[in-house]
């Protein structure tokens, strides 16, 4: 293919991705009230009701939420378009792993967002609201609350890709379980720093809520890499045994 043809394919891929996000965002806007009800459940469940401070805040919040939900729903289309763009340059074995990467990426990203909300965010919000006590009444604006929620959940989706990335690197022989295990202390420190960097608020509690799952993913990656190494070792042993039998058969004939 010529450079012009590659650029044309890239243009087509970008247009399809943008259209997919726009279409899913429009659909998400239709259900924006239901989405808001779900995301507001940690606050409304505690007896609080968010407020709006400007005329356009409610509308812009729904737009922001719809784009986030639209991107999440369009992610399979985006990943598939990326796959279609790079597939011609890959060999047969590489295509198999890339398909695994595409499917796994979406499932892990969606799973990370779901875990971040159901397993960390809901409990974290309820815990933080208790600090107000009976003397204070939290006045939560809907715009800041939804922005905080999105910025809190997005890193979970990205970080949940770590086990898949570790698996791919282990298959390529670029990382080992021994290396990851030896550097646990550095990984823990890096996890704390990363959690502090991506946490949307400066408080230590939110940082700790994010640190635990992140480090858990590192340990899961160590486990996955070791399993991958064992599988590769068994495969290599079988291939060597078959090669030895073939050599013995040839020498006996």
Automatic annotation (TrEMBL):
| Keyword set includes Kinase | no
Q: Which domain of life is it from?
A: Bacteria
Recorded GO MF terms: proton motive force dependent protein transmembrane transporter activity
Which key words are in the record? Cell membrane, Membrane, Protein transport, Translocation, Transmembrane, Transmembrane helix, Transport
Principal subcellular localization: membrane
- Check the record and name the InterPro entries matching this protein: TatC
Q: Where in the cell is it found?
A: Cell membrane; Membrane
Report the transmembrane regions from the record.
12-31, 65-86, 98-121, 148-174, 186-202
Q: Which sequence ranges form a coiled-coil region, renumbered to this chain?
A: none
Q: How does it sit in the membrane?
A: Multi-pass membrane protein
Is Glycosyltransferase tagged as a keyword?
A: no
- Pfam family for this entry, one: TatC
Q: Which GO terms describe its cellular component?
A: TAT protein transport complex
> What's one GO BP annotation on this UniProt entry?
protein transport by the Tat complex
Matching entries from PANTHER family are given as: SEC-INDEPENDENT PROTEIN TRANSLOCASE PROTEIN TATC (PTHR30371), SEC-INDEPENDENT PROTEIN TRANSLOCASE PROTEIN TATC, CHLOROPLASTIC-RELATED (PTHR30371:SF0)
Q: Which family does it belong to?
A: Belongs to the TatC family.
How does the record describe its quaternary structure? Forms a complex with TatA.
NCBIfam families for this protein: tatC (TIGR00945)
The record's function comment reads: Part of the twin-arginine translocation (Tat) system that transports large folded proteins containing a characteristic twin-arginine motif in their signal peptide across membranes.
Please give the name of this protein: Sec-independent protein translocase protein TatC
Organism, scientific name: Ammonifex degensii
Q: Which gene encodes it?
A: tatC
């Amino acid at each position: 293919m010529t450079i012009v043809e590659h650029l044309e394919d890239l243009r087509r891929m970008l247009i399809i991705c943008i259209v997919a996000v726009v279409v899913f965002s429009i659909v998400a806007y239709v259900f924006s009230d239901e989405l808001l009800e779900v995301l507001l459940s940690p606050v409304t469940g505690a007896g609080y009701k968010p407020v709006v401070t400007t005329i356009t805040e409610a509308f812009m919040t729904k737009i922001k939420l719809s784009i986030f939900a639209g991107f999440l729903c369009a992610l399979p289309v985006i990943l598939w378009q990326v796959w279609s763009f790079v597939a011609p340059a890959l060999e047969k074995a590489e295509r198999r792993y890339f398909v695994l990467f595409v499917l796994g990426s979406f499932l892990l990203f969606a799973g990370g967002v779901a875990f971040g909300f159901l397993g960390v965010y809901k409990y974290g919000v309820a815990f933080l609201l208790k600090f107000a006590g009976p003397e204070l009444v939290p006045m939560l604006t809907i715009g800041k609350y939804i922005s905080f929620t999105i910025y809190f959940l997005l890193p979970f989706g990205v970080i949940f890709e770590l086990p898949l990335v570790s698996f791919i690197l282990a298959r390529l022989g670029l990382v080992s379980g021994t290396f990851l295990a030896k550097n646990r202390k550095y990984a823990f420190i890096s996890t704390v720093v990363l959690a502090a960097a991506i946490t949307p608020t400066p408080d230590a509690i939110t940082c700790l809520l994010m640190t635990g799952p992140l480090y858990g993913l590192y340990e899961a990656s160590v486990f996955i890499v070791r399993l991958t190494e064992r599988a590769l070792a068994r495969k290599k042993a079988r291939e060597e045994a078959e090669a030895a039998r073939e050599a013995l058969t040839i020498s006996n004939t």
